[in-house]
Amino acid sequence: MAKKDPYAALRYKEFNFFLFMRFAMVFAWSMQFVIIEWEVYSLTKDPLSLGIIGLMEIIPAVSMALFAGHIVDQSEKKKLLVKCILGFSVVSLGLFLITVPQFTKDLSLNTILYTVYALVFLGGLVRSFLGPTIFSLLSLIVPKKVYPNAATWSSSTWQLASMFGPALAGVSISFIGVHWSLCLVFAFSIMALLMLSKIERKPILNPKIGEPIFKSLKEGLNFVFSNKKILGAISLDMIAVLFGGAVALLPIFAQDILKVGSEGFGVLRAAPALGSFLMMLFSAYISLNRKAGIKLLGAIFMFGICIIVFGLSEVFWISVLAMFLSGVFDGVSVVIRNTILQLHTPDHMRGRVASVNSIFVGSSNELGAFESGLTAKLMGVVNAVVFGGVMTLLTVTFTSFALPNFRKLDLEKDVEDLENEN
User: What is the Cα–Cα distance from 414 to 354, expressed in whole angstroms?
Assistant: First the structure.
């Protein structure tokens, strides 16, 4: 087998523009979410209000996901992605306007909150199309033999943006306030559009253009649920994200428990993304594909341990370390899951498979935020985080014994077959 080239995907010019576009988009989205979390909790001092933010995004994201996957598979990807980024820009501009001090001083608290929730809801609609479109576009930019490497760099870029977005959000809230911080979000969305303009339009590879929507959706669902590798990986990750949603409660830890202010909040919010990014960068050089099942189960188990440690900690540096390590172990899960999806998804079904994945994994972030907000309201913040970590451990243990074949999952041969293609 040829020596592994850790920069294989980066040798394609359009892929580099794709990475810059994805960085700007994820940076803007993660920064915006953190700013809204901070502002809403500052206004309400109610942990449930943080959960509602997640709920307002998950409702449209889940309800529209399968329909969005069908549209993605039937559409030219670049044109559709332009519409997605424009939609996000409208949301970010709306949030910028609703935080203008001269405008909001005469508005009631409920009016401001409902407007924010409505804009987050609209953002959820946009997100239902954004993820599947980006996933599908990636496979059209690089050849198939480079998919695993491209998936690693794409995921690393996502994590890098997720790291710096929250960090800048915490700093910018402190120095220029919520309102002008949201102006930066809008600027990054425009930057994403500029990067996307450097990528050529791509052919539609779906041979079933015009296929009835319900037949198309049924085909996509049947494929995912019949592919044990894809189903197992996304199900495990969904459980970890659902019950390990400590990130949603970080404003409470920063303000009321650790008392570290907006700067400390930004550090806490960025720590898991830094851990994930470093792990993904490491995986570009050292493969995680051999014995992938054992590595995935072990990583999610350790993720649960980190969440428990974070919940119990009252020392800032221990909390930061726990968040950082949770990101490291989550990075292992992301790399393995994305490799499975890229290797085992046919080109004409990428939108639908990515949409199902977004229901299982992507939307579980918001559902996890709601679960964390609700349990924090019912049992207290610390107990809610510890409960989530314990549930993650129990789920991984059950899966390990209930699905022994998953422990044997190994992706090395699949990757080698692609790398040996001409």
Answer: 20
Q: How far is CA 23 from CA 153, 165, 181, in A?
A: 11, 10, 18
Q: Which residues contact 103 (CB under 8 A, 6 or more apart)?
A: 97
**For residue 261, how many C-alpha atoms fall within 13 Å in the half-sphere facing its CB?**
6
Burial class (CB in 10 A: 0-12, 13-18, 19+), 418: middle
Nearest of 392, 256, 370 to residue 326 by alpha carbon = 392
Is 290 in a helix, a strand, or coil?
coil
Residue 20: what residue type? F
| Residue 218 CB coordination number (10 Å) | 13
Q: What domains, with CATH codes, occur in the chain?
A: 11-196+212-419 (1.20.1250.20)
Quote the CA–CA distance of 123 and 180 in Å, as a whole number: 19
Closest residue by Cα to residue 300 from 271, 335, 265: 335
Predicted confidence (pLDDT) per residue in 253-278, tens digit? 888 888 887 778 878 877 887 888 78
Distance CA 28, CA 270 (A): 14
Which helix H or strand E contains 189, and what residues bound it? helix 147-196
Check: pTM over 0.85? Answer yes or no. Answer: no
Give the other-Cβ count within 10 Å of 417's Cβ.
11
Cα–Cα distance, 26 to 146 (Å, whole number): 23
Predicted confidence (pLDDT) per residue in 305-324, tens digit: 999 999 888 889 999 999 99
Q: How far is CA 304 from the centre of its chain?
A: 18
- Token pair for residue 328? 């490291």
Per-residue model confidence as pLDDT tens digits over 189-207: 999 999 999 998 887 766 6
Tell me how far CA of residue 271 lies from CA of 49, 238, 277, 318, 355, in angstroms.
23, 21, 10, 11, 28
Taking each helix axis from N to C end, the angle separating 47-63 and 109-141, rounded to the nearest 10 degrees, works out to: 40
Provide the 8-state DSSP code for 244: -
